[in-house]
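hiii so my PI (J.) wants the whole complex modelled not just the main chain, which honestly fair. so below is everything: two entries, each one labled with what it is. i double checked the lines twice but i was tired so who knows lol
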Amino acid sequence: NAGVTQTPKFQVLKTGQSMTLQCAQDMNHEYMSWYRQDPGMGLRLIHYSVGAGITDQGEVPNGYNVSRSTTEDFPLRLLSAAPSQTSVYFCASSFTGLAGAGELFFGEGSRLTVL
Amino acid sequence: GEDVEQSLFLSVREGDSSVINCTYTDSSSTYLYWYKQEPGAGLQLLTYIFSNMDMKQDQRLTVLLNKKDKHLSLRIADTQTGDSAIYFCAEYSGTYKYIFGTGTRLKVLA
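here's the output for the full assembly
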């Protein structure tokens, strides 16, 4: 029962470095999304996708890129890391239906520190 | 824009009831959710309510929805130490975007 798998769980970067957070799900969910969690601010949506080849911006997309070449994978790229991107990142997926997306299934999170 | 508000902390004694409150602003929300986050883990769905319902009960959990005041609450009966976690309410308005609250950290005292 893998569900949503995120890697790495922890990462330390220097300002200006790039990296990719990986997310994979084995539930055949059409909808996938990335959130960041910061103290006192809850979860904020970065990018989301409703199927392979389709992505859209969320509330805080600046500094992040995504792509969706397969149903299973939805990587999040930081092109030039900044200290403001220090956060815990969650990937989440869901089925979609007539009412839109349903229950979100979350990965365990990736804690990123940018020095 | 949409905004979901919750108090940040709640402390209760084991065996008491806990009530976690949430206010939201998007009256077109179709689903309202409660998620639980345990330390070092992702969020897991606890329960949800459709916007055309006033109340939903699921074992120890009772969800109340007041659409007029845009107020959602989660009551946990007979709170246990295992209920200590962060609880998030979230609204979904059908545009593939969920809006999460800030989360309420529940601490259960033995």
